[in-house]
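User: If only I could read backbone structure tokens as easily as an amino acid sequence. Underneath my words sits a plain record pairing an amino acid chain with its backbone structure tokens. This is the protein in question:
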Amino acid sequence: MLIPGPPSQAVEEPFTFALMGDTPYSRFERAHMPTLLERMASAGARFILHVGDFKSGQTPCSDAVFEDRLSLFDHQPLAFILTPGDNEWLDCGRSSAGGFDPLDRLAWLRAHFFPPGRSLGTHPLPVVSQAGDPSHGAYRENLRWRVGPVLFATLNVPGPDNNWGGGTNPTPEYSARQAANSAWLASAFEIARREGLAAVVVAFQADPGFEDAASGRPQRGFRALLDQLREEAENFSGQLVIAHGDSHIHRIDHPLFDRQGRPLPRVTRVETHGFPFMGWVEVRVTPGATPLFRFTPHLYAPGEGPSP
């Protein structure tokens, strides 16, 4: 079956985009978020990619909090793409987060944060959603778009265990979502190979435990994802950037290894800053250049920003 590609922005000139995640958690971060978003725009970023956890695990998963974040993200000048984190749905059943039904919260996110055919923001990007596939029509949050030679794809992969659950067998929710994620990831690489693209950027929230996998003890909830990322990377001549949050430790490295234990140098992991460190990563893409990607971290300093 011929898989249609996402809407393409024909960009031959260098462009930048902004990576962020695990923020805003505190009242301070929420008060200063508009300034941080303005700084990303003034730096020339084309869009913002937020890898999830737009509130702390103790902040209630209420409509009011969700509506606040939606307004914040949708009424700023850059296109804004979110991939859901565990704090937004999977952990909402905790009493400290209000004791909500996690699947109800995920349904709310899908209905409001993922408008058909476009990102959030006052200057949105055109995107393709997996909801267009009748086999996986519920997964509005899995998005794809292309800028120049780079294909971007998001997956709903929450920490801390991808909702595997405590049993030997995974939860039904994990199994259904893993099937959707696997199909979406495979189609992204099929498009990238077919169109001869230079790179694929895959973004999700969870830290999938690269170090555990490298030592031969992959976490159950992430084994299938990491195996597929490895296989796709080995069969793709371009570069793969994996962007995630969750651990609140900013790092850029090459953590994926082939089955013989050799590092895959064309695979780069970028983890965003996270509470209590507020910041973002500027990613500059220069088509035809080596390296294709340059990463510049920016820690936030209040300066002339609003008072908390």
